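Data deposition worksheet. Section B asks for the primary sequence of the deposited chain exactly as it was used as input, without tags or linkers unless they were present during the calculation. Section C holds the resulting structure in C-alpha cell form. Section D is free text for depositor observations; keep each observation to a single sentence. Incomplete worksheets are returned to the depositor.
Section A, Depositor: J.P.
Section B:
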Amino acid sequence: MQAPLALAGSTAALLAWRPEHNVGWLIGGALLFLVIPFTLIVIFPTNKKLESPELDVNSERAGRLLRRWGQLHAVRSVLSGTAFLVFLWMLARKQ
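Section C:
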C-alpha cells in the first residue's frame, strides 16, 4: 500500500507545483517518490533474503540482515518524513 500512496503524494505535489512553479513542491514530491525505487532496488532484496527458508533465524547472518533491514527502513522513513516537512513548510508559506 505504501507505493501507491507515495505515487499519489508525488503526483499531488507535481499538480501543486504546476500553477506556481514553486520548487518546494517538486523537492517534496521527489523525496516522496524516491521511496518507491529505494524500496524495490535496495530493501526488496534484503526482504527476500530474510524470507528465505534456508536462513537460520538464530544465525549471525539473520541478525546482520535484520539490522540492515532496520537501517534501510530508517532511510525510507527519513525520505518520507523530510517530504512531509517540506510539504508542511510549503503549506505554511501560503498562509
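Section D:
The longest helix spans residues 60-94.
The mean pLDDT is 94.
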